[in-house]
Amino acid sequence: MENRVALVTGGTGGIGTAVCIELASQGFKVVAGCRDLEKGRVWQSALAQQGVECELVQLDVADYESCFHAYISAEEVHGPVQVLVNAAGITRDKVMKKMTPDLWQQVIDTNLTGTYNLCRIAATCMTEKGYGRIINISSVNGRKGQFGQVNYAASKAGIHGITMSLAQELARKGVTVNTLSPGYVMTEMVAKVPEEVLESIKQQIPVGRLGTPEEMAHAVAFLADRRSGFITGSDLSANGGMHMY
Predict the structure, then answer these.
(1) Which residues of the chain have pLDDT under 70?
(2) Which of 71, 131, 152, 184 is catalytic?
């Protein structure tokens, strides 16, 4: 039986966890990238109690050398990475006049440069083997913008720019590159938003509710499937109709 390996950055986060569980259920050997290995082991143990086996690799997505070491280590231990999911991301929300250069740079370094770092490594490794699936997690706010999120929206818009350009470079080499752009999803981060704000957000979503991490994971699994080989350079919007274009 073919050993299929998937590397998920931000794998211990809300959407990342659901992605890891979904891919594991489909037979992938899943390696979750995390910055804090101690917290990662607690997460790993919790999944194991649910009957889900996931491996861990420590990495800082904003640091290229850390990404390179983690990616190569994952391949050496588990085999060639066939699926890369770039799910690591942070927010540092402020209106522009209060957004310090540091708040700008933190988000760009993690969300945008982090995606570049892993994509660059995967592009080399996957094309050498003639097969791969890269799925980059963006956001509805990368398409429509959002008050107080200049840094986040810029980073997420840039992620799809990476996707479209890299997809053209790798299209004839057996590697697809696609973006998933979630809308508002009920993760731990979103759960911290005041209830009245969440209700206001729901009113803007035609389906009348927030998305679930499991729905996002299903979309990732679709793009990661071998049968999705004719889809590349695309942005799959999963936002409940909040933004249509």
Answers:
(1) 1-2
(2) 152
